[in-house]
Amino acid sequence: MKSKFMFSKLGYLMGAVLGVSMTANINTAVAAGVNTTGLAVTDKTVKVGILHSLTGTMAISETGAQEAEKLAIKQINESGGILGRQIEYIQEDGASDWPTFAEKSRKLLVKDKVAAVFGCWTSASRKAALPVFEKENGLLYYPTFYEGLEQSHNVIYTGQEATQQILAGLDWVAKEKKAKTFYLIGSDYIWPRTTMKIARKHIEKVLGGRVVGEDYKPLGNTQFGSTINKIRLKKPDVIYAAVVGGSNVAWFKQLKAAGITGKKQTLLTLSVTEDEVLGIGGQNLKGFYSVMKYFQSQTNSNNMKFVKEFKKMHGEDSVIGDVTQAAYLGPWLWKAAVERAGSFDVDKVVAESEKGDIELKTAPEGYVKLHKNHHLWSKTRVAQWNEDGQATVVFESDLIEPNPFPKGYQ
Amino acid sequence: MSDYTTQELISIFAMQGFAGFSLFSVLLLMALGLAIIFGQMGVINMAHGEFMAVGAYTTYLLSAMSEQYFPAFVQYYFIFAIILSFIIAGLLGYLAEFALIRHLYKRPLDTLLATWGLSLIMQQIFRSVFGAREVSPTLPEWLLGSYQPTETIDIPLNGIFVLGLTAFVTLGVFILMYRSTWGLRVRATTQNRVMSGAVGINTKKIDRLTFALGCGIAGIAGAAFTTIASTGPTTGSLYIVDTFMVVVFGGAASLFGTIASAFSIAQAQSILEFFISGSMAKVITLLTIVVFLMMRPEGLFSIKVRK
Predict the structure, then answer these.
(1) Inter-chain contact B157–A257, Cβ cutoff 8 Å?
(2) Structural domain tally of chain A?
């Protein structure tokens, strides 16, 4: 009995010794400083998460984003990975349901211990996931252009914040089209409301113009007859639109049906990318303008290569919109920060990112630089839609500093 | 308002009037199918919106096919798309009644759940087959643009088309229900199911055909709405709320109630929208309906039915 007990105790001791030696192994990794916080990093691989809606209403918009992230990850792996490690992604479905985004974020961070997450699309999904990322100290790369007024330690925003997108576009239309009167119309939720607030201030205070009407429609609304008549009555120089989702399609179809076309009227929209055009139809959009930081038709060599590779991976018919391109930047910006930090630790990666000098010369949109405030310096472009669903860029701004908390616009 | 000439104000007035009629025709077309089924069988078809989507996708498919194989056909396919949408949605409705609904007539609340389940199944099928992105058929030239009776008036052609189609379908339903032998049987079944059976009406067959007819009309509505909005897997759920509103407000089982209800909701909505913002207009319209239904739960019109 006793000897057996001794033996088992010995076994226990052996186990403990083994355990120590394994800890020592991890400790050598610690010494290398690659991973001190227990992330899912081995000598060969590092795990990341992709979190977008694959089902539900938002799947339409989020499909492109996750395709771009997979392309970036594939390219990084082919070029040798990050710190010698291949990226493996775990994909979760946010299902267009905001609490699900929070739950899946927790799963990715707590159970899978991913080093970074590329994901979310709507502001609502980001706001739902944000507390989880802050509590578990995760790192989220968020690709959508959004209303601003946010800067979290745990999020890098690769899309434009509101002022970047809005101000340059308004300046352009005021100068090029001699626009004085504006009609603002949007869907009724946080992004269009905040956007229009900033736009109105800029029109009235800076451009010396006048807002002759401001209208919000419930999400999913498909009847714009009365609004179009109001616009006719007010005769604005510019229709400034931020209508989203299925409503967007109805809005443009009915404008066209009512005889309001790009020939007669300047319309500037903040919510139409190449993705939306598939549903709206180029024939209904022809002649109108979009303000974005990226258009698929850009002809710089980065973009030509990107478009080619994207189509090779996801099909000849696929189109690339603004958010898709911004999502593509996520893994590359993460790679740059990790390599500088020499570590996957979230705090170290964020600290590098916050130095404000990580730049990406290979970005399809041209050139971007990460600002101290977690947003990107980027150019804003105005482009006019053609019947084939592609847009011709007619204006390109200088690099614009991100300003998520604009003073005087609140 | 002094900047405007009388001519311009008259034009806006005319166009705004048309916007109201246009919304009226849309609401009526959506609600007709649901009202027929609800009135006849007391079944609330939660999958009504999805049957509309069936029509819309049929139109899209026909559009894509004619573009690919018979470019000359592109100008005319839309008429056939409407007929085909009616047939396909109707057949699917016939099947759904046969496989699902008929087993649940004695448990009306369960039909609510069953048809809701059916709507989820159909949405997922749309998503698997057509993808998550929204699609739009290419519209023939004669449905695009506007009719200009004077310099300053633009009447959307697709609005005129939907208005005409709604009038045609409503007239068809009226003749079928009130001027045909079949309609007589349907109304008899509605009023007294047992007695109708006793005098030799095959009430089961009546039920099945009525359900199929309701779904077929939903298919027509779906096809017509491709001229106004786009089609996605969840398009149906966008329309279902408005549809219910019209049917409940109008009073179940009454064709005239449905028409009157669609008309008053559409006019209230479009006039309010002209003066205040779209969201507030919707809130006020809904509030008015709620208050009205609190005072008169049976809706605008109702037929006395022997239970």
Answers:
(1) yes
(2) 2
